Amino acid sequence: MSAVRGADAGGRGRAAAVDAPGPGSGAAVDAAAHGDPALARFFPALWRALPVLLGASVAIAAVVLVALHLLGAGSPLLPLAIALPAAPFAAWATRHLAAETEGRRARTSWRDARRAAAVLAVPALAAGLTVAAGDIAVRSGIPGMMASALLGLAATILTLLTAVAALPLAVERDEARLSSVWRVALHATARTPIPAIGVLAFTAAAAWASLVSTIGLFALVPGLAVALCWAAAATALGRIGVVPVRLGIHSAETAPPEHAAAGQPEPTTGIRIPNETEHSA
Question: In the chain, what are the domain boundaries?
Protein backbone atom coordinates (compact mmCIF):
# COMPACT_ATOMS: atom_id res chain seq x y z
CA MET A 1 0.00 0.00 0.00
CA SER A 2 1.09 3.56 -0.19
CA ALA A 3 1.04 6.63 1.95
CA VAL A 4 1.24 10.32 1.16
CA ARG A 5 3.37 12.04 3.78
CA GLY A 6 2.55 15.65 4.57
CA ALA A 7 4.93 18.55 4.46
CA ASP A 8 6.37 20.27 7.46
CA ALA A 9 4.74 23.36 8.98
CA GLY A 10 6.86 25.60 6.78
CA GLY A 11 4.79 24.57 3.75
CA ARG A 12 7.68 23.32 1.63
CA GLY A 13 5.42 20.89 -0.26
CA ARG A 14 4.64 17.22 0.23
CA ALA A 15 6.40 14.01 -0.71
CA ALA A 16 4.43 11.00 -1.86
CA ALA A 17 5.90 7.63 -1.00
CA VAL A 18 5.03 4.63 -3.15
CA ASP A 19 5.33 1.71 -0.82
CA ALA A 20 5.55 -1.86 -2.00
CA PRO A 21 4.75 -4.73 0.37
CA GLY A 22 7.39 -7.33 0.98
CA PRO A 23 6.75 -10.95 -0.02
CA GLY A 24 5.82 -12.02 3.48
CA SER A 25 3.92 -8.96 4.59
CA GLY A 26 0.22 -8.87 5.36
CA ALA A 27 -0.25 -6.40 2.48
CA ALA A 28 1.16 -8.89 0.00
CA VAL A 29 -1.15 -11.59 1.31
CA ASP A 30 -4.14 -9.26 1.07
CA ALA A 31 -3.21 -8.23 -2.48
CA ALA A 32 -2.89 -11.83 -3.56
CA ALA A 33 -6.19 -12.78 -1.93
CA HIS A 34 -8.32 -9.90 -3.10
CA GLY A 35 -6.65 -8.89 -6.36
CA ASP A 36 -6.24 -5.41 -7.78
CA PRO A 37 -9.33 -3.32 -6.96
CA ALA A 38 -8.80 -0.98 -9.89
CA LEU A 39 -8.54 -3.83 -12.39
CA ALA A 40 -11.71 -5.34 -10.93
CA ARG A 41 -13.50 -2.09 -11.83
CA PHE A 42 -11.74 -1.70 -15.18
CA PHE A 43 -14.36 -3.13 -17.54
CA PRO A 44 -17.36 -1.24 -16.09
CA ALA A 45 -15.23 1.92 -16.19
CA LEU A 46 -14.22 1.15 -19.77
CA TRP A 47 -17.87 1.01 -20.79
CA ARG A 48 -18.69 4.31 -19.07
CA ALA A 49 -15.64 6.02 -20.59
CA LEU A 50 -16.29 4.58 -24.05
CA PRO A 51 -17.51 7.85 -25.68
CA VAL A 52 -14.38 9.69 -24.55
CA LEU A 53 -12.13 6.81 -25.62
CA LEU A 54 -13.76 6.69 -29.06
CA GLY A 55 -13.42 10.45 -29.52
CA ALA A 56 -9.78 10.41 -28.49
CA SER A 57 -9.14 7.37 -30.66
CA VAL A 58 -10.51 9.01 -33.80
CA ALA A 59 -8.52 12.18 -33.11
CA ILE A 60 -5.24 10.28 -32.59
CA ALA A 61 -5.87 8.19 -35.69
CA ALA A 62 -6.38 11.38 -37.69
CA VAL A 63 -3.09 12.77 -36.33
CA VAL A 64 -1.27 9.60 -37.40
CA LEU A 65 -2.73 9.58 -40.91
CA VAL A 66 -2.06 13.29 -41.48
CA ALA A 67 1.52 12.95 -40.26
CA LEU A 68 2.08 9.92 -42.51
CA HIS A 69 0.68 11.82 -45.49
CA LEU A 70 2.78 14.93 -44.89
CA LEU A 71 6.10 13.37 -43.82
CA GLY A 72 6.10 9.81 -45.11
CA ALA A 73 6.75 6.62 -43.19
CA GLY A 74 10.54 6.94 -43.29
CA SER A 75 10.86 10.46 -41.90
CA PRO A 76 12.85 10.85 -38.65
CA LEU A 77 10.39 13.59 -37.68
CA LEU A 78 7.37 11.30 -37.92
CA PRO A 79 7.44 9.94 -34.33
CA LEU A 80 7.52 13.42 -32.80
CA ALA A 81 4.95 14.69 -35.31
CA ILE A 82 2.60 11.97 -34.04
CA ALA A 83 3.45 11.98 -30.32
CA LEU A 84 3.15 15.68 -29.57
CA PRO A 85 -0.26 16.38 -31.20
CA ALA A 86 -1.65 13.05 -29.96
CA ALA A 87 -0.60 13.63 -26.34
CA PRO A 88 -3.57 15.84 -25.31
CA PHE A 89 -6.06 13.25 -26.55
CA ALA A 90 -4.20 10.41 -24.82
CA ALA A 91 -4.15 12.38 -21.56
CA TRP A 92 -7.85 13.22 -21.91
CA ALA A 93 -8.81 9.58 -22.38
CA THR A 94 -6.50 8.40 -19.59
CA ARG A 95 -7.90 10.91 -17.11
CA HIS A 96 -11.50 9.94 -17.89
CA LEU A 97 -10.80 6.21 -17.70
CA ALA A 98 -9.03 6.57 -14.36
CA ALA A 99 -11.84 8.76 -13.00
CA GLU A 100 -14.49 6.25 -14.05
CA THR A 101 -12.49 3.47 -12.41
CA GLU A 102 -12.46 5.39 -9.13
CA GLY A 103 -16.06 6.60 -9.37
CA ARG A 104 -15.16 10.28 -9.44
CA ARG A 105 -15.61 13.10 -11.90
CA ALA A 106 -12.76 13.68 -14.33
CA ARG A 107 -11.06 17.05 -14.21
CA THR A 108 -8.77 17.60 -17.16
CA SER A 109 -6.35 20.45 -17.78
CA TRP A 110 -3.66 21.49 -20.19
CA ARG A 111 -1.17 20.38 -17.56
CA ASP A 112 -2.23 16.80 -18.30
CA ALA A 113 -1.51 17.37 -21.99
CA ARG A 114 1.91 18.87 -21.29
CA ARG A 115 2.93 16.01 -19.03
CA ALA A 116 1.67 13.42 -21.49
CA ALA A 117 3.59 15.15 -24.28
CA ALA A 118 6.75 15.16 -22.14
CA VAL A 119 6.40 11.40 -21.57
CA LEU A 120 5.60 10.50 -25.18
CA ALA A 121 8.36 12.73 -26.51
CA VAL A 122 11.04 10.50 -24.95
CA PRO A 123 10.37 7.33 -27.00
CA ALA A 124 9.42 9.46 -30.01
CA LEU A 125 12.76 11.26 -29.92
CA ALA A 126 14.61 7.95 -29.50
CA ALA A 127 12.71 6.50 -32.45
CA GLY A 128 13.42 9.53 -34.64
CA LEU A 129 17.14 9.44 -33.88
CA THR A 130 17.17 5.70 -34.57
CA VAL A 131 15.56 6.20 -37.98
CA ALA A 132 18.04 8.95 -38.80
CA ALA A 133 21.02 6.85 -37.72
CA GLY A 134 19.75 3.85 -39.66
CA ASP A 135 19.26 5.93 -42.80
CA ILE A 136 22.79 7.34 -42.55
CA ALA A 137 24.19 3.85 -41.92
CA VAL A 138 22.47 2.44 -45.00
CA ARG A 139 23.57 5.31 -47.23
CA SER A 140 27.16 5.55 -45.97
CA GLY A 141 27.93 2.01 -44.84
CA ILE A 142 29.76 3.32 -41.77
CA PRO A 143 29.82 0.54 -39.13
CA GLY A 144 29.69 3.03 -36.29
CA MET A 145 26.41 4.43 -37.52
CA MET A 146 24.87 0.96 -37.66
CA ALA A 147 25.95 0.41 -34.06
CA SER A 148 24.37 3.74 -33.16
CA ALA A 149 21.16 2.68 -34.90
CA LEU A 150 21.08 -0.57 -32.94
CA LEU A 151 21.65 1.27 -29.67
CA GLY A 152 18.89 3.69 -30.62
CA LEU A 153 16.56 0.77 -31.34
CA ALA A 154 17.25 -0.69 -27.90
CA ALA A 155 16.63 2.71 -26.29
CA THR A 156 13.39 3.11 -28.25
CA ILE A 157 12.08 -0.28 -27.10
CA LEU A 158 13.05 0.39 -23.49
CA THR A 159 11.45 3.83 -23.37
CA LEU A 160 8.32 2.59 -25.12
CA LEU A 161 7.89 -0.21 -22.60
CA THR A 162 8.46 2.18 -19.70
CA ALA A 163 6.10 4.78 -21.16
CA VAL A 164 3.23 2.30 -20.92
CA ALA A 165 3.33 2.76 -17.13
CA ALA A 166 4.76 6.29 -17.13
CA LEU A 167 1.98 7.88 -19.21
CA PRO A 168 -0.96 7.03 -16.91
CA LEU A 169 1.15 7.65 -13.82
CA ALA A 170 2.26 11.08 -15.06
CA VAL A 171 -1.30 12.12 -15.87
CA GLU A 172 -2.82 10.84 -12.64
CA ARG A 173 0.00 11.95 -10.33
CA ASP A 174 0.28 15.43 -11.76
CA GLU A 175 2.03 16.77 -8.64
CA ALA A 176 4.98 14.39 -9.00
CA ARG A 177 8.21 15.19 -10.80
CA LEU A 178 8.45 13.45 -14.17
CA SER A 179 11.88 12.10 -13.31
CA SER A 180 10.34 10.30 -10.35
CA VAL A 181 7.47 9.04 -12.49
CA TRP A 182 9.96 7.55 -14.97
CA ARG A 183 11.95 5.96 -12.17
CA VAL A 184 8.92 4.27 -10.63
CA ALA A 185 7.58 3.24 -14.05
CA LEU A 186 10.95 1.73 -14.99
CA HIS A 187 11.06 -0.19 -11.72
CA ALA A 188 7.52 -1.51 -12.25
CA THR A 189 8.20 -2.46 -15.88
CA ALA A 190 11.45 -4.22 -15.00
CA ARG A 191 9.62 -6.26 -12.38
CA THR A 192 6.60 -7.04 -14.60
CA PRO A 193 7.40 -6.47 -18.29
CA ILE A 194 4.78 -8.79 -19.82
CA PRO A 195 1.80 -6.35 -19.67
CA ALA A 196 3.77 -3.58 -21.42
CA ILE A 197 5.11 -6.02 -24.02
CA GLY A 198 1.58 -7.25 -24.64
CA VAL A 199 0.23 -3.72 -25.10
CA LEU A 200 2.91 -2.78 -27.64
CA ALA A 201 2.67 -6.07 -29.53
CA PHE A 202 -1.13 -5.97 -29.71
CA THR A 203 -1.18 -2.30 -30.73
CA ALA A 204 1.39 -2.84 -33.49
CA ALA A 205 -0.43 -5.92 -34.81
CA ALA A 206 -3.84 -4.23 -34.69
CA ALA A 207 -2.54 -1.09 -36.41
CA TRP A 208 -0.85 -3.09 -39.17
CA ALA A 209 -3.90 -5.31 -39.73
CA SER A 210 -6.27 -2.35 -39.90
CA LEU A 211 -4.05 -0.36 -42.26
CA VAL A 212 -3.69 -3.23 -44.72
CA SER A 213 -7.34 -4.28 -44.56
CA THR A 214 -9.97 -1.72 -43.58
CA ILE A 215 -8.66 1.75 -42.85
CA GLY A 216 -11.78 2.59 -40.85
CA LEU A 217 -10.85 0.08 -38.18
CA PHE A 218 -7.61 1.98 -37.58
CA ALA A 219 -9.64 4.72 -35.90
CA LEU A 220 -10.40 2.30 -33.05
CA VAL A 221 -6.82 1.23 -32.39
CA PRO A 222 -5.50 4.29 -30.46
CA GLY A 223 -8.38 4.28 -27.98
CA LEU A 224 -7.94 0.57 -27.38
CA ALA A 225 -4.21 1.15 -26.89
CA VAL A 226 -4.88 3.84 -24.26
CA ALA A 227 -7.25 1.54 -22.36
CA LEU A 228 -4.80 -1.36 -22.47
CA CYS A 229 -2.01 0.98 -21.40
CA TRP A 230 -3.96 1.96 -18.30
CA ALA A 231 -4.70 -1.68 -17.42
CA ALA A 232 -1.07 -2.70 -18.00
CA ALA A 233 0.18 0.20 -15.88
CA ALA A 234 -2.18 -0.71 -13.05
CA THR A 235 -1.01 -4.33 -13.22
CA ALA A 236 2.71 -3.53 -13.25
CA LEU A 237 2.45 -0.87 -10.56
CA GLY A 238 0.31 -3.14 -8.44
CA ARG A 239 3.03 -5.79 -8.49
CA ILE A 240 5.35 -3.40 -6.63
CA GLY A 241 2.64 -2.56 -4.12
CA VAL A 242 1.18 0.47 -5.87
CA VAL A 243 -2.53 -0.36 -5.66
CA PRO A 244 -4.44 2.03 -7.92
CA VAL A 245 -6.34 4.79 -6.29
CA ARG A 246 -5.35 7.67 -8.51
CA LEU A 247 -3.24 5.07 -10.28
CA GLY A 248 -1.67 3.72 -7.18
CA ILE A 249 -1.25 6.53 -4.70
CA HIS A 250 -3.44 6.45 -1.60
CA SER A 251 -3.74 9.66 0.35
CA ALA A 252 -3.57 9.53 4.12
CA GLU A 253 -7.33 10.10 4.18
CA THR A 254 -8.23 7.37 1.65
CA ALA A 255 -5.69 4.69 2.61
CA PRO A 256 -7.29 1.23 2.77
CA PRO A 257 -8.52 0.43 6.28
CA GLU A 258 -7.49 -3.24 6.43
CA HIS A 259 -4.06 -2.48 7.89
CA ALA A 260 -5.43 -0.18 10.54
CA ALA A 261 -8.12 -2.73 11.42
CA ALA A 262 -5.54 -5.49 11.72
CA GLY A 263 -3.17 -3.29 13.70
CA GLN A 264 -0.47 -3.62 11.03
CA PRO A 265 1.84 -0.74 10.05
CA GLU A 266 1.95 0.41 6.46
CA PRO A 267 4.85 -1.32 4.65
CA THR A 268 7.57 0.81 3.09
CA THR A 269 10.26 0.32 0.46
CA GLY A 270 11.78 3.74 -0.14
CA ILE A 271 10.45 4.15 -3.71
CA ARG A 272 9.34 7.75 -3.69
CA ILE A 273 7.48 10.19 -5.93
CA PRO A 274 8.40 13.66 -4.65
CA ASN A 275 6.18 16.57 -5.59
CA GLU A 276 7.43 19.03 -8.16
CA THR A 277 7.43 21.69 -5.45
CA GLU A 278 9.67 19.58 -3.20
CA HIS A 279 12.94 20.18 -4.99
CA SER A 280 12.85 23.83 -3.94
CA ALA A 281 12.87 22.73 -0.29
Answer: 39-240
Q: Each residue's pLDDT tens digit in the chain (281 positions)?
A: 333 333 333 333 333 434 333 333 333 323 333 445 556 677 677 777 788 889 999 999 999 999 999 998 889 999 999 999 999 999 999 888 877 776 666 676 788 899 999 999 999 999 999 999 999 888 887 777 888 899 999 999 999 999 999 999 898 887 778 888 899 999 999 999 999 999 999 999 999 998 888 888 899 999 999 999 988 988 888 888 764 445 444 333 333 444 434 443 343 333 444 444 444 44
Q: Among 208, 126, 199, 110, which Cα is nearest to 159's? A: 126
CA-based end-to-end distance of the chain: 26
Q: How many CB atoms lie within 10 A of CB 37?
A: 17
